[in-house]
Every structure is written in C-alpha cells, then in structure tokens.
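Obj.: predict assembly geometry.
Materials: sequence records (below).
Method: joint structure prediction, all chains together.
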Amino acid sequence: MLFKVEMTVNPPSHLSEEEFNAIKLKEKNYAEELQREGIWVHLWRVAGLYANVSIFEVRDNQHLHDVLMALPLYPYMNVSVTPLCQHPSSIK
Amino acid sequence: MLFKVEMTVNPPSHLSEEEFNAIKLKEKNYAEELQREGIWVHLWRVAGLYANVSIFEVRDNQHLHDVLMALPLYPYMNVSVTPLCQHPSSIK
Amino acid sequence: MLFKVEMTVNPPSHLSEEEFNAIKLKEKNYAEELQREGIWVHLWRVAGLYANVSIFEVRDNQHLHDVLMALPLYPYMNVSVTPLCQHPSSIK
Amino acid sequence: MLFKVEMTVNPPSHLSEEEFNAIKLKEKNYAEELQREGIWVHLWRVAGLYANVSIFEVRDNQHLHDVLMALPLYPYMNVSVTPLCQHPSSIK
Amino acid sequence: MLFKVEMTVNPPSHLSEEEFNAIKLKEKNYAEELQREGIWVHLWRVAGLYANVSIFEVRDNQHLHDVLMALPLYPYMNVSVTPLCQHPSSIK
Amino acid sequence: MLFKVEMTVNPPSHLSEEEFNAIKLKEKNYAEELQREGIWVHLWRVAGLYANVSIFEVRDNQHLHDVLMALPLYPYMNVSVTPLCQHPSSIK
Amino acid sequence: MLFKVEMTVNPPSHLSEEEFNAIKLKEKNYAEELQREGIWVHLWRVAGLYANVSIFEVRDNQHLHDVLMALPLYPYMNVSVTPLCQHPSSIK
Amino acid sequence: MLFKVEMTVNPPSHLSEEEFNAIKLKEKNYAEELQREGIWVHLWRVAGLYANVSIFEVRDNQHLHDVLMALPLYPYMNVSVTPLCQHPSSIK
Amino acid sequence: MLFKVEMTVNPPSHLSEEEFNAIKLKEKNYAEELQREGIWVHLWRVAGLYANVSIFEVRDNQHLHDVLMALPLYPYMNVSVTPLCQHPSSIK
Amino acid sequence: MLFKVEMTVNPPSHLSEEEFNAIKLKEKNYAEELQREGIWVHLWRVAGLYANVSIFEVRDNQHLHDVLMALPLYPYMNVSVTPLCQHPSSIK
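Observations (raw structure tokens):
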C-alpha cells in the first residue's frame, strides 16, 4: 500500500552542529536500510529546499506510522501524509 | 530532470457527461502514451479524491510546460509543480 | 484499517430540488448498506453544518477510494481523508 | 453529547526527556481513566503524526472544557473542537 | 448551553429580488420568534458586512443543529459554530 | 458602541508559574472591574481552548484601544476586534 | 471616529456593460457626495488592482454600516473594516 | 508617490523593558521627523492592536525602502507595503 | 521604477473560443508593444501554469496602474503587484 | 533554464551582530560571483522588506539546488522556487 510523505527539516538551534550531524547520519543509514527493504520506494529532494518527496510502500497505516516515528530526524521535521492507490490511466 | 506534478480535476458543470467522457478518454490515451515514452514516469491516484500525484521526467522547464498544456483535461484541473533532484540519502 | 473522512456537501444550484432529493435518497441507502457491512463504522453530523465526520474501516487505500467514489453525493462534496491507527493510550 | 477533538502535540524543547516522559505517563493514565468512564469514547492516532482524533461524550460544553483543561499534555498541544450530533443516515 | 454562531450571507444571483426578499422576511420572523423563546439570545450585525455575530442558548448540539438548519437563509450563508462555557472571570 | 473581541492566551515559557499567576490575578480583577462598570458586557470561555469571546461597550475606537491595552495579559494574547451594530432582526 | 475600509470590486458577469456602468456612475456620485460631507475622508486606488483603500470618519459603527451598505457597488465588492484611533507618535 | 504601509510590532522577549523603551523613543522621534518632512503623511493606530496603518509619500520605491529600513523598530515588526495611486472618484 | 507583477489567467466559460482568442491576440500585440517601449521589461511563463512572472519599468504607481488596467486580458486575470528596488548585492 | 527564487531573511536572534555581519559579507561575495558567472541573472530588493526577487539561470534542478544550498544566509531564509520558461508573447 502506497503513501506519499512530504518532509521538511527545521534544523534545531539548540543542538550543536556535531550533535545534529550525528542525527543526520543515523537518518541516512535508516533511510538507506528502508530503501533496501523496499519500504521507502522513492526519495527525492525538493530543489532549493531542505525537504523531500517520498513514496512508502507499507503493510498498513500502522506500519507507516511506526516507520515514520522511528526516523531520527522526526522531531525536527514537518510531515504530511497522503494515501495513494492505483490510477486508472497508469500502465504499471 | 524530474518534477512532481499534482493535479486535481474539477468536472465542469457546463459540459454534458458524454462530452466530458470524451475528454477523459483523450486524457487517458495521452497519459498512456507519455508513460510509454518515459515522460510520465509515475502516476498515482490520491485515495478518496479526484486527484493524482505524478512524477514527470522531462528535458527542461519548457518541455514540462508543453507536455502539461497538452493535457486534454488541463482546462478543468488545478495543477501544482515542484522541481525535484537527487536526494543524498537515495540509493538509486 | 481505519480512516477519518470529513465530507461537506455543497448543494448544486443547477439541479431541481426533486433531482437533488433523489440523489440524497440513494446516498442514504448506500450509507446504511456500508454501515451494515461494517465499512462505514461511524457517521456523525457536524452541528450547524451540512457536513459529517466519518470513520471507515477498509482493506486498504484502494478499497477506501472505491467506496468513496461510489457515493451518490460525491460530485457535490468536499472530502478530506486522514489515515488512522492504534493510539498507545487507547484501551480498545 | 458528542464532540470531535483533534490534538497535536508539540514537545517542548525546554523540558528534559525525563520531565516530558513523566507528563506523558500522567496523560496516559488520565486518558485511560476517561475511557473507562465512557467520556473519552474513541481515541485514534493520526498515522505519521504526533496527533490524535478523539470523540468525547460529555454532559455539556462546560464538562468538555473541564475534561480537556485537565489533560497533563494540554499546555503542549494544539486543540480543535467540533460539536457533533446525530446524522440522519446513521443506523445507530 | 451557549454557542457563538457567525453567519455571512451570500445573496444568490439566480433568485429574483422579490424571491430573495420573501426569504429574508421569513428569516426575520423566525429570528424574532427564536429571540422571544430565549434561544437566539444575542444578534448583532457586523459593521460594514452582510454578516452577524450571534449567541444561541440551546439544550444540546442536536438542538443547535435543528435550529440552524431551519433558518430560511441557511442555504445562502456561511456558518461557523463555537461552543462556549462559563469564563472564570465572568461575574454573571 | 459594541465590539466583539476574541482573545487567545499564549502562556509565556520565560515566566515562572508564580509570576504568570500574579499576572492572571491582576487580569481577573481588572476584568471584573470592567464588567461592573458596564464596559466588558459579556465574557465567555471558548470550550476546550485557553481563549474567550467578549463583547465590549465603549465610547469609541480610542476607548476600546485604551481598555484593551491595559489588560495585564495583553502581551501574552492574540487579539481580534470586530465592530458591531444593531441587527435589523434583533428585538432588543 | 476613523475606520480603514478596503474594497475590492468583482464585476458581475450577469450584468451587461451598460448596466454595470450605470451602477458605477451612481457609485461615483455617492462617493463624491460622501467626500464633500467629510465622511469619506480619503480614497486611494490600489495600483494594478480594481480595489481601493479608504478612510471613513463616522459617528459610530452604525453610521459606518449605513454608509457602506448604501454603496451602489456594495453587492459586487469584498469589504474589510478596521477601526482606527490616535497613534501616540502622530503629530496631528 | 503614495504607499500604504501596515506595521505590526512584536516586542522581543530577549530585550529588557528599558532597552525596548529606548528603541521606541528613537522610533517616536524618527516618526515625528518624517511626518514634519511630509514623508509619513498619515499614521493611525489600529484599535486594540499593537499595529498601525500608515501612508507614506516618497519619491520612488527606493526612497520608501530606505525610509522603512531606517525605522528603529523595523527588526521587531511585520511590514506590508501596498502601492497607491489616484482614485477616479476622489475629489482631491 | 521596477515592479514585479504576477498574472494568472482564468479563461471565462461564458466566452466562445473565438471571442477569447480575439482577446488573447490583442493582449499579445499590446504586450509586444509595451516590451518594445521598454515598459514590460521581462515576461516569463510559469512552467505548467497559465500564468506569468513579469517585470515592469514605469514612471510611478499611476503609470503602472494605467498600463495594467489596459491589458485586454485584465478582466480574466488575478494580478499581484510587488514594488522592487536596487539590491545592495546586485552588480548591475 | 530559468527559475524565479524569492528569499526572505529572518535574522537569527542567537547570533551577535558581528557574526551575522560576517555571514552577510560572505553572502554578498557569493552573490556577486554568481552574477558574474551568469547564474544569478537578476537580483532585486523587495521595497520595504528584507527580501529579494531573483532569477537564476542554471543547467537543471540539481544545479539550482546546489547553488541555493551554498548560500551563506540559507539557514536564515525562507525560500520559494518557481520554474519559468519562454512566454509566447515575449519578444526576446
């Protein structure tokens, strides 16, 4: 089941650059792992913004919730979720 | 070059159902052709809405504009365009 | 899988009262059928508005989409969809 | 009398994780008590967000106000309130 | 139980002035009746706008809904509803 | 001359609970005094929110401004002002 | 007593150009009369828009309401009203 | 050349009351000077808000920018700018 | 003096395609004339939208207003105006 | 390929004036370099605001992203990006 998730990162001013870089590294590792598992199926950067457009393939709403809540950057992001389904004109 | 395009259809009240169905059929044919050409690379329905989330791969902004303006449903849609690029955590 | 769906009805000015009443009767029958099937699990009126707050239990996003698109009043409504899941403090 | 209440939690940056966890534990206990009393009749998590959709059954507006103001997390939440009533197509 | 209700009238262009005046007369009569019954307890015009700010005293949400839906001008208004209760600094 | 004033309180995080309580006590005293003087003619709590809906009767815009600016909580509130007048359907 | 009033004109599509010109002429005459009476004290065009920024000096809210409701273009305008008073740094 | 400028002051929490009063005094002096020079031609307080509505008469956009940027309170204000011109119904 | 002007065209449903094409041809001629006169200094299409981003160089606000109001498409456009000036980091 | 980029600067309160001036100097140098390279083709100040309207000419979305992310002021700005293309009425 597919969801579009849009995330915008708001870097916290109360963390040092080192602390924030450590969180970003964890995020990168977690994102790569989810991609290899086929859960985070697309991940694009929005040009000019510290934001991404993502497509997740998950078992259900709960699965999506658990995956997103585990994002190391979650506390520093605005997140919006849009459930997707098959489009009648899609040839896939 | 990738763009996210979101389209919401507002069916016109001044067209008959037949006229509007004829336009939707042209749209479907055009959408399938663009998918086969590798230009409309993803096309998802937003669950519960007469709307889609799409990813286009085009040569440049002009190419995107020409492709979108030729959509038979274009006069009956709200369209938003977001330029995308490579995300540093993407493994593709 | 649960979704909150909020619907606001915008009665069309180009339909006669009879025509619109016929659509509302079909809507009522369809809504009752979906409730008996356990798909439309809650249906509340928003006090003072021609709107409702609803909870649907469906198999997946596609199922939700198909159920909503079949609503006879769908062309005359604004619809918003929110995916729900288990709350850690819920005792159900 | 039913109300939909939507709550979004904004974790405060000036509290330690321990302090905030203590508040969240009080919230959980209070939420469970209100559920057992039949006041907080539904409590769902919004998938992907630190937010909930809730249905409260209370005696009147004042009762709702007193119940919400006593939420330990209240100072860290955005809250919206929508009065509900019987829907003519509901079979309950 | 008190509610603030704000109403903005959008005069319909498809009605003749006579037809609309007939509806406004019914509205005036109904409003005066509800005021005499102690249900529509305050009714103020917003200066410069075709809008009002009103306070209703009703038995419950359902009562409010039934009263508002019966307004002859309801189909031509935007309505917003806010539940009120006792303020701790009020001396009434 | 009547005005609707809506106030939402944003408790400041840089004040101690004691300091803020002292300000709230001054506010309560001032609000009660204005009510006894017939200036703050209605004061309702919005159910579920740290907010109020108020009606002020003042000599003119300047009087309203002076009264509101003297509110001890003013620095911690969002305030909106709406000028009111006689409604043609009001029986008062 | 001063008010800022902003008006944006939405020319109606269901009137002929002649009919609308007749209304605009009445509006012009009425506006000039109110200016000569010292009620409509300033009237500026917003550059590039079919809109104005105006300052009215009136006896009270009711007077403002009566003056604005009598504008021949009122049914074709969006209007916003802001009560003004003396600024402590004004030298007038 | 005329511009409407609206300014809302957001008093900074990181300045002492003395420091902020010193800035406000400079602002008052500067505002009075600009008024005497015929640049800040109108200055009204918005009733109930820490905000003003102003009319500036300047040589050009650059002049407006330089005048506004020199406001001592500028760093603590939200500012909006609207270019004005002659209204065809103005008798001035 | 420079202004950014953004225009979005809303094709009117009550005009025939021929009538609207005639207006668009007049618009094109007028736009080209203003460009040759050095008034409409930049004119870009927004990719994917029936909209443009434009830069006008005019004598003053009044000149801008007169130029825009003479656009044949003006009645069918949403227009926003932003006054510009020299940027301190610009090397032009 | 052209993009309109709008930037609004929010000066950070946690930096000293010296530190922020150092960042602004780097920004100025970088902006001048990008202008000399023909990448930042237009740079205008919005009159009255700490904001700019810019036109960038870049190879593709990725190029735009890399150029913007390298702005020394980027962490202190709100940025919006609009892809542009040739307008059919442009004579350039």
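Conclusions so far: Chain F has a mean pLDDT of 97.
To do: check interface contacts against the pulldown list.
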